[in-house]
Design brief:
The chain is an all-alpha fold and 211 residues long. 53% of the residues lie in helices and 0% in strands. The longest helix is centred in the middle third of the chain and has 25 residues. The protein is elongated and about 120 Å long. 11% of the residues are buried.
Amino acid sequence: MVEMIQSNWLAFLLVVIVAVLIAVWLIARPKKTRDRSFRPDVLDEGVAPAQRNQAFIDAPPASAGKPLHEHEPPAVPETLGGAGVAVAAAALMAEEEHEAAEAAKAAPQDRMPDTAEDAQAVAAAIKLHDNGATDDMTRIKGVGPKLAELLSSMGISRYDQIAAWSDADVQEIDAKMGRFSGRIERDDWRTQARYLASGDTAGYEEKFGKL
């Protein structure tokens, strides 16, 4: 250590001088005095009252200009008392029922049935207009002339019949189809039949291709 200082004494001397100068500057620099001037308080004797925020006082209430709720009941004369409230509530209920009825009318009615129960309901509605005619079963993809003849022998000749099949019906009929077994589920006959029974050619072709 001593040898290092002796060999670099000039550098160490400069470091010591700089450190001494910094310490002197820190000690001798003037200190900033805090402003402790007297500030009167509104509670002190003889002090004028605080100024009011006139802009805040003159501002309109937050509820001013706010639109009434869409279904807020109409105002009724105060002289009607409880009867007026009942009238307003009845008017509001009538308006909501009317809107619900309009929404139901605007809802699309051509959605395909999602369950077997819905399909059976569709089939029942179609059968109301049944005139005894049969459908061309070969329009169902996967049904050829021989398979159509086999279905006819089982009394199946209409799209609405297939559309109304439950899973149990599919298993029962599939077991009678011999070498054609598995075609019902593979080619999704029930969905095809629902489109064909409802006359939705565009929906059919969008899902299964050109007829």
